[in-house]
Design a protein that fits this description.
The chain folds into two domains: 64 residues; 187 residues, Rossmann fold. 42% of the residues lie in helices and 21% in strands. The chain has twelve helices and eleven strands. The strands form three sheets. The protein has a seven-stranded mixed β-sheet with strand order 5-4-3-6-9-11-10, sandwiched between helices. Strands 1-2 form a two-stranded antiparallel sheet. A two-stranded parallel ribbon has the order 7-8. α1 packs parallel to α4. The longest helix has 16 residues.
Length: 277
């Protein structure tokens, strides 16, 4: 692997049995960008450029890690979300494109204050802070996740009040215009459908909800939101597609109005918005 032009063939030769060619090539370009700062066009222009032994060794180690099903984002220690760089590790979920859609939906509204419940890496709260002038707070049960979120806020130059709390043990929240949450919503029974890279490496605390109470977090947050949202305030959820109708009905019983269920890019019921009046 002496030249830049050898990197993609090396990835393909080593990893085509792991996943599809399209993803292998995508991984290769992300690694090239991370290690060399080259985009796809640069790879053509600098194809004959020699790479150092150190870079070559790093690439080989990344490929070895990918063979264990470890997500590339955890290997590199970072990912991109809403056009921004975020640190991630085993204490935080890897932000998904569907969550970017949720952020985009929230940003269509006017608001002065936001609370993000279950912030993880801080991707939702930080993206909202970067693209609005609102005062933003974020809570999470995990001290280690909050450590990462604070680093991400500093990297992206935004100010957020991060608080360690278990939302299931909370009896009240501060008054805000918007509450947004992407809580744990994967059922234990769905484990067998999940990819090994998610199941083995991403934090189960942030993924799974009890089988017998699949809308546990939504019910708790819905009831808290009813007490803490300002008049006309909005509640946003990312959801398990199986429970869209159940969550709609539950929010309606609590007293929310104008409840909307929105599909994601994959045509799955993924987001809910509800208004408190």
């Amino acid at each position: 692997m002496e030249k830049v032009s050898n990197i993609i063939p090396y990835f393909k030769a080593e990893l085509l049995g792991i996943t599809q060619e399209k993803e292998v090539i995508s991984w290769a370009y992300i690694v090239i960008q991370h290690l060399l700062g080259y985009n796809r066009s640069d790879c053509i222009i600098h194809g004959d450029k020699e790479i150092t032994i150190e870079i070559s060794d790093e690439i080989k180690q990344i490929v070895r890690d990918l063979k264990t099903q470890k997500p590339l984002q955890y290997i590199l220690g970072e990912t991109e979300f809403y056009g921004m760089k975020f640190k991630v590790n085993e204490h935080t979920l890897i932000p998904r494109p569907e969550t970017e859609e949720l952020v985009g939906w929230v940003l269509k509204e006017k608001f002065n204050s936001v609370l993000d419940i279950g912030t993880g890496s801080g991707c939702i709260s930080i993206a909202l802070a970067k693209h609005s002038k609102a005062t933003i707070s974020a809570i999470d049960i995990s001290k280690m996740a909050l450590k990462v979120a604070k680093e991400n806020a500093a990297i992206n130059e935004v100010k957020i009040d991060f608080i360690q709390k278990d939302v299931l043990q909370v009896h009240g929240l501060q008054k805000v215009d918007v509450i947004v949450s992407n809580p744990p919503y994967v059922l234990e029974s769905e484990k067998q459908k999940m990819k090994a890279n998610v199941l083995q490496y991403e934090p189960h605390l942030a993924l799974f909800t009890p089988e017998k109470t699949p809308v546990l977090f939504y019910k708790k947050i819905g009831n808290l939101a009813a007490k803490s949202l300002n008049y006309g305030g909005k509640l946003y959820f990312e959801i398990n597609e199986q429970y869209g109708v159940e969550i709609l009905e539950m929010l309606s019983k609590i007293g929310f109005v104008d409840i909307a269920l929105k599909k994601d890019i994959n045509d799955k019921d993924r987001m809910i918005k509800a208004i408190w009046k």
